[in-house]
Amino acid sequence: MTGNSNSNGGDNSNQNERFSHLIETLGLNLFQKIQKAKILVVGAGGIGCELLKNLILSGFINIEIIDLDTIDLSNLNRQFLFRKHHIGMSKSKIAREAVLKYNPSANIVAHHGDIKSQEFGPQYFKQFDLVMNALDNLSARRHVNRVCLSADVPLVESGTAGYLGQLTVIKKGDTECFECVPTEAPKQFAVCTIRSNPSAPIHCIVWAKMLFGRLFGVADDSNAVTDMDDNIVEGTEEQNNIVRDLQLAVEKDKGYGQWVYHKVFYTDIDRLARMKEMWKEKKPPQPRLLADIDQELDNNTAEHINTAQLKDQKVWGFKENVRVFLETLAQLKQRFEKDGALSWDKDDDMALNFVVSASNIRSHIFGITTKSKFDVKSMAGNIIPAIATTNAVIGGLIVMNAINIIDGRLKDCKSIFLIEQPSNKRMLLVSEIPKPNTACYVCQKNFITIKLNTNTVKVGQLIHDILKKHLAFSLPMLTVGNDLLYESGDEDLSKEEIRARDALEQKVLSSYRMGDNVILAVEDYLQDFKVSILINHVESFGTEEENKKKEHEKWFEIVGTATAAAPFQTQPIQSITTTATAYNAVTDIDDLEIIEPTPTTPTPTTTTTTTTTTTSGKKRKEIESAPGSEDSDGSKKQKYETIE
Ligand SMILES: Nc1ncnc2c1ncn2[C@@H]1O[C@H](COP(=O)(O)OP(=O)(O)OP(=O)(O)O)[C@@H](O)[C@H]1O
Ligand SMILES: [Zn+2]
């Protein structure tokens, strides 16, 4: 779907009058280059709105906008081109209408569509002098990176996450590409930290979500926080020296709430506290009997302090947490019995209250700071604040790089990082754009190795989990020698062929010509990208024990995507975050429980002074994370919400 372009094109004398101040600043020559330039903006969200406004006000008049989304209430706090009555309408089209008001004679085309779809292939990209990404997910960014490399069109890449922002320029052959330095996957916490040795509120929050799954969801290994009936607190069956918590049965008789409370906050904690070697260096957890709590006064007065605070920003006292825990437990149990397994949802108030109270009780027991409902919601829901000012700063800097590119001064373009705390009184770190990584499989050598068990891994897993999800192919086509083994996309295939392909996806690789040492050619015509993949058979990765610890069993390894020549050092420095952060924080966390970004610092080769405004008007953005959802293919739409 394409929005109308404006037929006026651009009457020169009018334009010159409107932009007299710009002509004065930039010079007529550069101004004319800007007016001639044809640019593509991908994404009309937080960054996109700022960027489009800046582009128009900077004299750009030939612009195409692509966005696949419609306007949501929660966008309105920062995507200022949109108003309430636009909710449900196409972002790209409304953005076009809004910025046309700044310059009615601009020539703007709006596409409501997915940048990864067939209509926007390399041929489409070739018409532009410059592409600007204002996206929110890695898979679309990697896709645009590849298409821009193929079409040899410069790309300004950018991202924001909370107070952090970054941007850079990608130009085939001259700079590193988006995939020259692989974006690091966010880390997950070790299971033992969650189950036995928490030291931060987030550990208790994750535990509480697991407990929710254990009690009201489908019990599986991932939520095995406790065995409800097990009352052993010390000793082993073999040695016949078992000590039991006999109170558990008594509490069970009293009711469901008492039973669960006693089990997870007394029996289990008692057992942990008895493991002396664990508590040599720190205070052991304190089991808490319900009966004792009933007696004591709630001396945590935090909830009474600041009456001006919003309700959800108060930190509940211990007794209040216990009360809410027992209450929600009873309510959730009723729901569970009526509706069957529940899945945790941060927008389900009852489920949220359960996690808030359970995590706070656990925090209390382990001597960890307790949190408000507001905080727990953002931590448990993987919510990353979307801050209007961050987008505004990045949106402005993008245009500065864009003007350099249009003026043929690629050498003046910089990689820029907006950081959270001033470093040497600066909020912006500016560095030369790194050269291409000679080992990059995308822009340089087009060769990688994949290690896996060819006798157990199926064709479908190779296609969907490895090629699409990890290597960001949109429509991979596989050939060995001259033989076509697999074709993606349904458009050119008959129903029969699609059915045959589905059956093929169930075959293991070795039974379908993809055994050890085979070189596969994988091509994506949408991205105009081709890579050779050497298949290496391995029986297994690590021992079963090791795999258990990692939570997710490792079943393949990609060699040749992550390589040295990284432009940024990785010395942890407080308050400065990795290059990857602003790009992936809002993307790849979908199928992760928690994120724990590794702080690293970019090391600018040259640093120039730039000033910026500080952030205000903090708003929050929530990332709806459906378990097991697959951002990396970009197919899942993320929704955002404002929490007041
Ligand atoms: N494959 C895609 N094709 C077209 N548009 C896309 C695609 N993937 C994401 N987008 C769009 O990119 C936009 C990203 O904007 P969004 O506001 O989510 O993030 P942002 O611009 O990075 O800023 P912030 O995270 O601060 O809000 C969204 O409007 C989204 O619809
Ligand atoms: Zn590269």
TrEMBL record:
It is found in: Nucleus. Pfam families: ThiF, UAE_UbL, UBA_E1_SCCH. ATP binds at residues 43-48, 67, 75-78, 91, 136-141. InterPro entries: ThiF/MoeB/HesA, ThiF_NAD_FAD-bd, UAE_UbL_dom, Ub-E1_IAD_1, Ub_act_enz_dom_a_sf, Uba2, UBA_E1_SCCH, Ubiquitin-activating_enz. The keyword Metal-binding applies. Residues 603-615 have a biased composition (Low complexity). GO terms for molecular function: ATP binding; metal ion binding; SUMO activating enzyme activity; transferase activity. The active site is at C192 (glycyl thioester intermediate). Residues 24-440 form the THIF-type NAD/FAD binding fold domain. Residues 633-644 have a biased composition (Basic and acidic residues). Transmembrane segments: none annotated. One of its GO terms (cellular component) is cytoplasm. Keywords: ATP-binding, Metal-binding, Nucleotide-binding, Nucleus, Transferase, Ubl conjugation pathway, Zinc. Residues 451-540 form the Ubiquitin/SUMO-activating enzyme ubiquitin-like domain. Residues 293-377 form the Ubiquitin-activating enzyme SCCH domain. Belongs to the ubiquitin-activating E1 family. PANTHER family: SUMO-ACTIVATING ENZYME SUBUNIT 2, UBIQUITIN-ACTIVATING ENZYME E1. Heterodimer. This is SUMO-activating enzyme subunit. The lineage of its organism: Eukaryota, Amoebozoa, Evosea, Eumycetozoa, Dictyostelia.
